Amino acid sequence: MIRFLVGGVGITPARSILRDAVQRGRTGRGGALLRQSRFELHAVHRGVRGDGDRGVKVVSIVEHPDETWPGPVGFITADLVRQHVDPVVGMFFTSGPPVMVTAMERVLDELGIPEERRMVERFGPA
């Protein structure tokens, strides 16, 4: 079971991993996708929105929402991760712009996730 902490273009490998699991007949039972977007428009990404029915919990966090946004606001934090998944089990995959991934590594440190339970991918210049 993989817990994805992604932002921006980091959604691409997460989406690919989820799509592969579905094609192989594996569901994401117990998996979670926490994706951070700057604006609400970016929070609804084609092909990921419906993954909840495959056993993957999808949580969109928007940094600058309008007043009607019903979900979490701001950034992915250790408290937000704890609220949606049990950090004691599973792998954590983080992907996105370097600044966001560095922030997610701090979140994983705060959660006490050891290096062997982390997969990290940075996109763009450091």
Question: What would you say this structure looks like, in words?
Answer:
With 126 residues, the chain is of the alpha/beta class. It has a single domain, classed as 3-Layer(aba) Sandwich (Rossmann fold), CATH 3.40.50. Helices cover 30% and strands 28% of the residues. The protein has 4 helices and 5 strands. It has a 5-stranded parallel sheet, sandwiched between helices. The chain is globular. About 6% of the residues have low confidence.
Outline of the structure:
The chain is an alpha/beta fold. Helices cover 30% and strands 28% of the residues.
Please render the helix and strand layout as text.
Blueprint: E1 2-7, H1 11-23, E2 31-39, H2 40-43, E3 56-64, H3 78-84, E4 91-96, H4 98-111, E5 118-122
Parallel strand pairs: 1-2, 1-4, 2-3, 4-5
Low confidence ranges? 45-51
**Mind telling me the CATH class?**
Alpha Beta
Question: Which whole number gives the mean pLDDT?
Answer: 83
Percent range of helical residues: 25-40%
Q: What CATH architecture do you see? A: 3-Layer(aba) Sandwich
User: What amount of the residues lies in strands?
Assistant: 25-35%
